[in-house]
Structures are given as structure tokens and as C-alpha cells.
Specification:
mainly alpha, 298 residues, hpI Integrase, Chain A, 3-stranded antiparallel sheet
């Protein structure tokens, strides 16, 4: 018989969590020590400004004024400011989940308004995708070829790919399980058999707890910024971002007839954001489907 849980007794054993006494810089350092999503670079200016303040005393007004100052300086684009404040929001979500924050604490980013930003639409053709894949295979670090292939196949965020351990990978099913995501919802990424075959060759031995893309610092993933810059320069697209491969996958999904709702699930994205950025592609697909039905009726 399945044992019953005495919930009140279990709660007593867990006990009350006491908020951690830490300033904003200490909280940011703690987060960056276990999350390798590039937050350390984005948070640097914020820890310089607010690092000595208690992590739990930072207000929405503080962040809003700092964001406005960044915009007025002319040194930062709206998209950069939005990413910064989003990272701070992710930092506080992490702290709340781990009971570091005081009881009832509300993230100061919840009341923030996002700045309107220009939509970055980058066209990457099949020829350029093939050039990226072939060019990456020429690098001495053979893992870089896998990294590029995974970004192309999955449409995943950089951190969702480069932070993976073998325990997250199923080579037979060709899936990657990502438990902690930007949207706080676990999801799966899917990759091709060609990529799976390359992974088997690059890693003939695979330890479950090992990082696929571990860098020079033990336990931390490599960011591949320099390799990516060399690769994109070599194929004649020096302005191409790693994140643009995510945009490419979104566009390809919609051109293939996938609805925005399904594409949003594949990418772990908001349907509203996808609609704003790629709605024109879905409209084209829907129009073609409607016109095809007219011909059938005729």
C-alpha cells in the first residue's frame, strides 16, 4: 500500500525559510555562479549602480529611472534595456523559488513597462545555413559543429543549448530536456538524426553529469563568441547573431504551415511576441491554404 503523507508534520520538518541577508551584488553573484546564461555581463552595470543596496529593497522606481537614464544616454537601445530588465526579473524569480527572498516579496520588475523596440528581421537562406554548418565543422573544437547544428535544428536559446548535460540528452529519441527555461516551463528541444550521428562521433564516451560544452573553467560552459565571430565573418555574414538562428527556425516553422500557437510551444516563446514578429508569415500560409481550398471546390 502506498504510504500516506502527514502534510502538517512534513511542513514542520521543512520549517520556515528565513530570507537571506544579501545585497544586490551578492544576489547577482549567487545567481551567476549556477546559471550560465550571460547574465553576468548584462548585470554588471546594474551591480555597479545598486550592488550595495539590500537585494530586497530595490524598487520598481529605481529600475525604471535607471532604464530611462540608459535610454536617454543614447548608448543603449531599447532592446538592450528590455533584455537587462528581463534578466533582473529572472534573477528575482530564481531567488523567490529558492526561498532566498522574504515571505511575500514581489519582484520590482513586475510593474515595469517594456520599451517599444524595432523588430529585428534577419533573412538567412538555406545556402547560408549550409555554409554555417560546413564552416563550423572546420574548427579545431569539434563540439562547435554540434553547437551550431543544435542551434539550427532546435531553435533553442543559447543557454538552453550550451548549458546541457548528458543527463538532459536522449540521442535515440533525439531530444533535449530543458527543465529551467526563461518562461519557467520545462520543455523539449528536437534535433536531427544527422546531428545525433555527429554527437556520437564527437563524444564516443558520455558521462550523464558532464557538460557537453564545458569551457576552460571546470563546471562552466564555453560561450563560443570568438568562434562564432570567425565563422560568420568567413561566410560573409559578420553581423549575424547566434540568436538569429532562433528567428530562422521560427520563420521556417511558419513557412512549413505550422501555426503560431504550435511554433510558440516549439520555441518556448510567447504567442503574442511571435505574432508581432512573424504574423505576416502565418497570414501568407493561411491565405495559400484558403486559395488552395477554392481550387479544390472548383
Amino acid at each position: 500500500m502506498r504510504p500516506k503523507l502527514n502534510l502538517r508534520a512534513a511542513m514542520a520538518q521543512v520549517g520556515e525559510h528565513t530570507a537571506a541577508e544579501m545585497n544586490f551584488a551578492e544576489l547577482a553573484d549567487a545567481y551567476c555562479a549556477v546559471q550560465f546564461d550571460g547574465a553576468d555581463l548584462r548585470l554588471r552595470k546594474w551591480t555597479e549602480a545598486f550592488g550595495r543596496l539590500s537585494a530586497w529593497s530595490l524598487t520598481t522606481r529605481d529600475i525604471s529611472l535607471a532604464a530611462e537614464a540608459m535610454l536617454q544616454s543614447g548608448l543603449y537601445q531599447a532592446s538592450t534595456i528590455n533584455r537587462d530588465t528581463s534578466t533582473i526579473g529572472t534573477l528575482y524569480k530564481w531567488a523567490i523559488r529558492r526561498h532566498l527572498a522574504p515571505a511575500g516579496f514581489v519582484s520590482p520588475t513586475l510593474g515595469l513597462q517594456r520599451y517599444d523596440e524595432a523588430i529585428r528581421r534577419v533573412e538567412i537562406g538555406d545556402r547560408e545555413i549550409r555554409a554555417l554548418i560546413k564552416g563550423a565543422a572546420a574548427f579545431k573544437d569539434r563540439r562547435f559543429a554540434v553547437y551550431v547544428r543544435l542551434l539550427v535544428d532546435t531553435g533553442g536559446r543559447r543557454g538552453e543549448v550550451r548549458e546541457r548535460r548528458w543527463s538532459d540528452i536522449d540521442l535515440d529519441a533525439r531530444t533535449i530536456t530543458v527543465m529551467e527555461t526563461k518562461t519557467d516551463r520545462p520543455r523539449q528541444l528536437f534535433f536531427s538524426e544527422d546531428t545525433a550521428a555527429l554527437m556520437r562521433r564527437v563524444w564516443p564516451k558520455r558521462e550523464p553529469g558532464a557538460l557537453l560544452f564545458e569551457g576552460k573553467v571546470k563546471g562552466q560552459p564555453i560561450n563560443y563568441r570568438a568562434a562564432w565571430a570567425d565563422l560568420t565573418a568567413a561566410i560573409g555574414r559578420p553581423g549575424l547573431h547566434q540568436h538569429d538562428l532562433r528567428h530562422h527556425r521560427a520563420a521556417e516553422l511558419l513557412r512549413a504551415g505550422t501555426t503560431i500557437a504550435v511554433a510558440a510551444q516549439v520555441l518556448g516563446h510567447s504567442s503574442l511576441i511571435l505574432q508581432r514578429r512573424y504574423g505576416h508569415l502565418e497570414s501568407k500560409t493561411l491565405r495559400e491554404a484558403t486559395e488552395a481550398s477554392w481550387k479544390t471546390a472548383a
